[in-house]
Design a protein that fits this description.
single chain; 298 residues; mainly alpha; Farnesyl Diphosphate Synthase; two-stranded antiparallel sheet; 15 helices; 71% helix
């Protein structure tokens, strides 16, 4: 399947789930709920849910049954974007082609909206999919996602990203940047594939292999994102282009150049695809999504 078609199919399913999972705008506290819905429903590729459902397709459970849990990944991702855009972090005013949450609702409400999305995500993961036979699978899924979202994953990577500009001159900057990307982006993408595989009933060794695939795809994705920041525009990216260079951030193009960065993204993708070999043709959708990670233009 073409990755764009796969993402569109997933987006329609996930957006319906998100609309049901999110509090209604008119429910008090209305400002919080408007901020949550504004940020989540502003668009986006829904790549993490797509990876989760593609991982689940290697198992035996109906995709519709697992969709709410996959949608919870988008809640976590959106929380991270809201907080990443805050003035104390990357201080960006544009996200998914719209003013960022703190620009529209104020910094305090943006922080609370991010907090609410993260905690709502784990409420969903704790109960979905419903049914006694899913109880041990839900527990394992929560464990993996929480690890990927916390200090050993996304939050740890964000911290390292903030500190990267203060690295001593003798530091191995490529290794430091790889640490940032593997944790800030790769960890949650890996956990996304793993979540689908766990809930789909795959074995632990299969889940571990698929999680490694997602982690490597995540690094390739972020390297490609660094390149897009150099070559893209506000309109194509849906966020402020050229901001990394303006802010003197540590990026792959800044360290290696654009062409070498492209080669490194391709190398990481090839390593990722190697993890899928035991699954044969059944993993074709995951292969397509992996290729999309480095070929996309937004």
């Amino acid at each position: 399947m073409d990755p764009t078609a796969c993402l569109e199919r997933t987006r329609l399913l996930i957006d319906r789930c998100l609309d049901r999972l999110l509090p209604k705008e008119e429910e008090p506290p209305a400002t919080l709920h408007r901020a949550m819905r504004y940020s989540v429903l502003a668009g986006g590729k829904r790549l993490r849910p797509a990876l989760a459902l593609a991982g689940a397709e290697l198992g035996s459970e109906p995709i519709e049954t697992l969709a709410p849990a996959a949608a919870a990944l988008e809640l976590i991702h959106t929380y991270s974007l809201i907080h990443d855009d805050l003035p104390a972090m990357d201080d960006d005013g544009l996200r998914r082609g719209k003013p960022t949450c703190h620009v529209v609702f104020g910094e305090a409400h943006a922080i609370l909206a991010g907090d609410a999305l993260l905690t709502l995500a784990f409420e969903v993961l704790a109960r979905e999919p419903q049914g006694e036979r899913f109880v041990p699978r839900r527990l394992e899924a929560v464990r993996r996602v929480a690890k990927a979202a916390g200090p050993a994953g996304m939050v740890g990577g964000q911290t390292a990203d903030l500190e990267a500009a203060r690295l001593p001159a003798a530091a191995d900057r490529v290794a430091a940047l790889e640490f940032v990307h593997r944790h800030k982006t790769g960890a949650l993408l890996g956990a996304s594939v793993a979540l689908g595989a766990v809930l789909g009933g795959l074995s632990r060794s299969e889940v571990d292999r698929l999680e490694r695939f997602g982690q490597k795809v995540g690094l390739a994705f972020q390297i490609a994102d660094d390149v897009l920041d150099v070559e893209g525009s506000d309109e194509t990216l849906g966020k402020t282009a050229g901001k990394d260079q303006k802010d003197h951030k540590l990026t792959y193009p800044a360290l290696l150049g654009v062409e070498a960065s492209r080669r490194e993204a391709k190398r990481q993708l090839e390593e990722a695809l190697g993890e899928l070999e035991p699954f044969g043709a059944k993993a074709q959708v995951l292969r397509e999504l992996g290729a999309f990670a480095i070929e996309r233009r937004s």
